Amino acid sequence: MDAENAVRRTRAAMRRAPPPPETLLTTIQRRVVFALFAAGMAYLLVGLVLLPHGAVFWLTFLFLPPVVGFIAALFGGEAGRRVDVWLLTGGAATPGPKPVAATALPEAARAYARLARFDRPIGTWLLLWPCGWGIGLAGGLPWHWPLLLWFAVGAFAMRGAGCVYNDIVDRDLDARVERTRNRPIASGRVSVKAAWVWLVVLALIGLLVLLQLPLRAQLVALGSLVLVAAYPFMKRITWWPQAWLGLTFNWGVLVGWLAVAQPSLPMLLLYGAGVFWTLGYDTIYALQDIEDDAFAGIKSSARALGQRARTGVSMFYAAAVVLAAAALWLVNPQWPALLALTPAATHLAWQVVQLRDHEPARALALFRSNRLTGSLLFAACAVVGWA
């Protein structure tokens, strides 16, 4: 028993340890990433500030990004190192204070906040951004920007509801995995009955958001409930529960698009891009638990891929970029539309370069950095959809 506890403490320490700075990108790699990222952001800036008409737009579009990229490469040493760390933290310069749910709430309420993962907002971001993609690429911005606020409320509530439901179903499995054994239900701090009541409260908030949408978007949104209900059981019956999570977490693409426009092929392609994106980042996330999952009999894409996890993630991300590029092209068939995808594609490639399957802390950091990927793809969709 003592040996088992020692192993668990060692694994927990490895998960908490930050990635060592010396194993980030080399100076040359940083300069390349910094140049590509800066040039891509310049492309997005031109598209946001100047409408794609006239000589001023084209002169700025053709000359500004290469110049910015060249300058960025020249100064990409120390500046590139800072960008490297910024990318790894998903856009956060420093860890910052703990969320309110983890510190300021009374002890009785704190367990419910943690049950809904209010102290870990990354899931809300990953659920929200696909909604923004759909609204943006369908041409809904800036005119339908209030929808984004409603979707933000909905993502916050429904992500919390999904976590509560997942923990109810997985309470026995969670107790057998080091990373999840202290969750409120698995540890006994919240009863199953109380968790169901909390789930209903969160679902009612989601219902309020649902009523703000057009009818066709409401009907499609309701279809996601089947995916949500089935997800916790996927890890028991398939090696690819991350694919099912991709279908679930990116449903907002369809809902966001249909809230402002008619269904179309680009909508489906963008949804497919989101599915592969999730398959990639959740495979990275599953690398943290690969040993515990094997012990508990939990299936995952990380276990299925084994030593080929990095190759698998690169293929998933490549598919996401190709599908997203096809969606952007069909909406606006001009090559500048593809260049708007450069920042997001660069960040995905950077994740693959950084991935180490034997470093749980790095896997968690890379997973969290996908909130930045989602925001970059949102910017691309907004620019192309508006243009």
How would you explain this protein's 3D organization?
The structure is a single chain. The protein has 387 residues and is mainly α. It has one domain: UbiA prenyltransferase (Tetracycline Repressor, domain 2, Orthogonal Bundle). The protein is built from 21 helices and no strands. The protein has helices at residues 2-16, 27-49, 54-74, 78-88, 100-103, 107-115, 122-137, 145-169, 171-174, 192-210, 215-237, 241-249, 251-258, 265-286, 290-296, 301-305, 309-331, 335-339, 342-354, 360-368, 370-386. The protein is globular, with a radius of gyration of 21 Å. Mean pLDDT is 80; it is low at 13-24 and 92-98.
Taken from the alpha-carbon principal axes, the silhouette is globular
* Percentage of residues in helical conformation: over 70%
Low-confidence stretches: 13-24, 92-98
Q: With helices defined by DSSP (H or I, 4 residues minimum), what is the helix count?
A: 21
| Mean pLDDT across residues | 80
